[in-house]
Amino acid sequence: MDKPMKARPIARLAAPALAAAALLSAMPAFGADAAAAQALARDNKCFTCHAIDKDKAAPAWKAVAAKYKGNKDAVAILTKHLTTGPKVKLGGSEMDHPVLNSKSPDDTKNFVEWLLSL
Amino acid sequence: MQSFLSRLRQFFLRPSALSLSAVVAIGMLSGLIFWGGFNTGMEATNSLAFCTGCHEMRDTVFQEYKETIHYKNRSGVRAICSDCHVPKDWMHKFVRKVQASQELYGKFVSGVVDTPEKFETHRMELAQHVWATMKASDSRECRNCHSWEAMDPHKQQPRARAMMEKGQKEGKTCIDCHKGISHLLPKEYTGDED
User: Are B156 and B121 contained in the same domain?
Assistant: First the structure.
């Protein structure tokens, strides 16, 4: 009687690999380059209004990350926020949020992913 | 043996062989030379060439400053190192120059920032000293050129106007919001230090 056919090694690895990839892609922070993201923030003078831990004129980034925790559209929402200059309330005044000046969409994406990882 | 004090007493009380007017003239001339020389020397240490004469400043903060509005701008007004880092009035300036002796120790003895890498290691600490000094003096050196009264909000960008109004209302001082205006921010800076 023939032995039951074993799955090929590659096929046996595929399922967990795909699951891991799906899990990692759902974690926006994974792989974000924190140093590059913070350098972009410094260059754009974000820290004039924002800080990582505490609220200044604008909300702390950890509070922003907490607000969007679990939101699958978080990356898209924040990317739009940073690239379109929407109106924001600051100290009772309404003003345009500065558009993030980055060299490439990848830099912006990295920044957003880092922010959401906080 | 005469004590030092009694010799000093004699020096001041013993009549001079010179006439009174000659003594006064020599005294005034000596004072003029000493005071003029001292002030000229102190002013020489305020020049851009002096500040950038050492590679510690020339290769780091000077290069960053050259990319900023305080170095080059549409109206051709330049604020050099001493305009922002050395008080204008004599007493505060003298105190700052005495403090600078510590920088001489760093330059000639410890070599604390004698490579760009070492400078980067200490950038946060150095920046925090400057920020604390500016905060304590209500950004006195910024205010040598800038003042609320001289600003025309209508000529500012809407966002700048809103932020300036907010800052004024909250009693903020220039350095509260304008860190890194002429130099790179330290890589450890997260905005939480304010």
Answer: no
Residue in A52, A54, A57 closest to B166 by CB: A57
Q: Please count the other Cβ atoms lying within 10 Å of the Cβ belonging to residue A98.
A: 15
Q: How many domains does chain B have?
A: 2
Q: Residue A37 — pLDDT band, cuts 50, 70, 90?
A: very high
What angle is formed at CA B38 by the lines to CA B32 and CA B39, rounded to 5 degrees? Answer: 90
DSSP at B115: S
With a threshold of 0.90, tell me whether the complex ipTM lies above it. no
CATH numbers and ranges of domains, chain A:
29-116 (1.10.760.10)
Which tokens hold the place of B165? 């109004």
Whether B163 contacts chain A with CB within 8 A: yes
DSSP string spanning B145-190?
Answer: T--TTT--GGGS-HHHHHHHHHHHHTT--HHHH-TTSSSPPPTT--
Which segments within chain A are labelled E, that is strand? 87-90, 93-96
Cβ–Cβ contact B189 with A under 8 A: yes
Residue B159: domain span: 152-176
Would you say residue A19 has pLDDT above 60?
no
What are the chain B neighbours of A50 within 8 Å (beta carbons)?
191
CA atoms within 13 A on the CB side of A91: 15
Cβ atoms of B116 and B59 within 8 Å: the answer is yes
Decide if A53 and B177 are in contact by the 8 Å CB cutoff: no
Verify that B96 and B136 share a domain, yes or no.
Answer: yes
Tens digits of residue pLDDT in A85-116? 999 988 777 888 999 999 999 999 999 999 99
Answer yes or no: do A42 and B187 touch at CB < 8 A.
yes
Q: Does some domain include residue B167?
A: yes
Q: Look up residue A95 and give its two tokens.
A: 């003003």
Neighbours of B56 (CB within 10 A): 21
Here the tokens at position B22 are 């000659």
